[in-house]
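Customer escalation, tier 2.

The customer says the design service returned an amino acid string that "doesn't look like it belongs to this structure." They asked us to rerun it and document both sides in this ticket. The original C-alpha cells are below, unchanged.
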C-alpha cells in the first residue's frame, strides 16, 4: 500500500472508532477532547504539515478531509499549520484572524498553549499566550457549537512574515474538511432513505426522494472534485485561484446538501439525538470561515476580468 494510502487509512480507522456522538456532544458542551488530541499526537498526525515530516503537504490536507468526514472536534487545519509556521509541533497551538486589536475566532483558544494571530493584509502572524495578563481571552462558539475564542494582542508584540499564502491555506483546509463533511451527510442520508419505510416500502424507492438523492450526490461529487483540484494545485501558479473556486463551490454545495439531508431525514434529522446535526451545522458554519462564497468569487472574478475576453477561454480550458 502506498505511504499516502496507509496514512489516510490509519486516520480513517482511528477517527471512525473514536469520533462518536458522545464525543461530539461533549466537545459542544466545551469539554476539550483530550483523549483524541493525545491519540493524534501519539500517532504523529500533528506533525504531518511540518516541512521536515517527509509527507507532502497535500497529504496532510487529505487527512483534514478525513477529519471533516468524521466531524473531528479538533481544529486540525489550524493545529497543522500553526506547527508548520512555528516549526514546533510539541505545543498545542491554534490560529485566529486579527481584527480590532485582538485575535478572533481562534478554535479552542481557551485550551491552546499558543494562539497565532494572522493578519492577512500583510501575511504576517504574531503569537500570544492565551489567558496571560496581556492576552485576556473571551470564549465564543460558531454555529456548530465549536469553540471560537478571542484573545487580546499585547502591545509591542513581534510580527513574523510568512512565505506562504496563509489565508489561502486556511481556506483550503475548510474546503477539504467541508468536502469530507458533505460525504458523511450523503452516506447518512442514503442509509436512512434505505431503512426508513413509508407505505410499506423504503422511502428511497419514491421518485421524489430519488431525485433529491441524485441532486445531493451530484453536489457532493462536485465539491469533492473542486477540493481535489485545489489540493493538486498546491505547488502551482494557480493555487490561490483553485482554492478560490473550491471554497466557493464547496460552500454552495454545503447549502444544498445540508438542506436535502434534513428534508430526507424529516423530523428525525432535527433532533439532538441524531448525529446529522453535527455535520449539517458544521457545513453551514465552515462555509463562512476564512471567506464565504462571495469573498472568493470576487477574488476569482477580479482575476478573470483582468485577463480580458481574449484570454478568458484559455484560462478556463487549460490548467496552465
Amino acid at each position: 500500500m502506498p505511504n499516502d494510502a496507509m496514512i489516510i487509512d490509519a486516520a480513517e480507522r482511528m477517527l471512525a472508532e473514536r469520533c462518536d456522538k458522545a464525543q461530539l456532544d461533549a466537545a459542544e458542551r466545551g469539554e476539550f477532547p483530550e483523549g483524541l488530541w493525545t491519540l493524534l499526537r501519539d500517532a504523529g498526525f500533528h506533525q504531518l504539515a511540518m516541512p521536515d515530516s517527509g509527507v507532502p503537504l497535500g497529504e496532510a490536507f487529505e487527512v483534514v478531509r478525513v477529519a471533516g468526514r468524521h466531524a473531528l472536534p479538533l481544529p486540525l487545519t489550524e493545529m497543522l499549520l500553526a506547527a508548520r509556521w512555528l516549526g514546533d509541533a510539541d505545543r498545542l497551538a491554534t490560529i485566529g484572524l486579527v481584527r480590532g486589536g485582538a485575535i478572533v475566532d481562534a478554535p479552542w483558544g481557551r485550551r491552546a498553549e499558543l494562539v497565532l494571530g494572522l493578519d492577512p493584509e500583510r501575511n504576517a502572524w504574531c503569537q500570544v499566550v492565551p489567558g496571560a495578563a496581556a492576552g485576556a481571552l473571551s470564549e465564543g462558539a460558531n454555529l456548530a457549537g465549536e469553540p471560537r475564542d478571542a484573545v487580546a494582542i499585547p502591545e509591542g508584540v513581534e510580527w513574523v512574515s510568512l512565505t506562504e499564502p496563509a489565508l489561502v491555506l486556511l481556506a483550503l483546509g475548510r474546503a477539504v474538511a467541508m468536502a469530507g463533511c458533505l460525504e458523511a451527510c450523503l452516506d447518512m442520508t442514503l442509509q436512512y432513505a434505505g431503512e426508513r419505510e413509508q407505505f410499506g416500502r423504503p422511502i428511497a424507492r419514491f421518485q421524489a426522494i430519488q431525485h433529491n438523492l441524485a441532486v445531493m450526490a451530484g453536489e457532493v461529487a462536485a465539491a469533492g472534485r473542486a477540493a481535489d483540484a485545489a489540493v493538486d494545485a498546491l505547488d502551482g501558479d494557480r493555487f490561490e485561484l483553485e482554492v478560490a473556486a473550491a471554497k466557493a463551490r464547496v460552500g454552495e454545495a454545503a447549502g444544498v446538501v445540508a438542506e436535502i439531508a434534513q428534508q430526507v431525514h424529516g423530523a428525525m434529522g432535527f433532533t439532538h439525538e441524531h448525529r446529522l446535526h453535527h455535520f449539517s451545522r458544521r457545513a453551514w458554519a465552515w462555509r463562512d470561515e476564512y471567506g464565504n462564497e462571495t469573498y472568493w468569487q470576487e477574488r476569482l472574478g477580479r482575476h478573470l476580468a483582468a485577463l480580458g475576453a481574449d484570454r478568458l477561454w484559455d484560462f478556463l480550458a487549460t490548467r496552465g
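Tier 2 assessment: The sequence is consistent with the input. The first strand starts at residue 93 and ends at 99. The longest helix spans residues 166-195. Sent an explanation to the customer and offered a walkthrough call.
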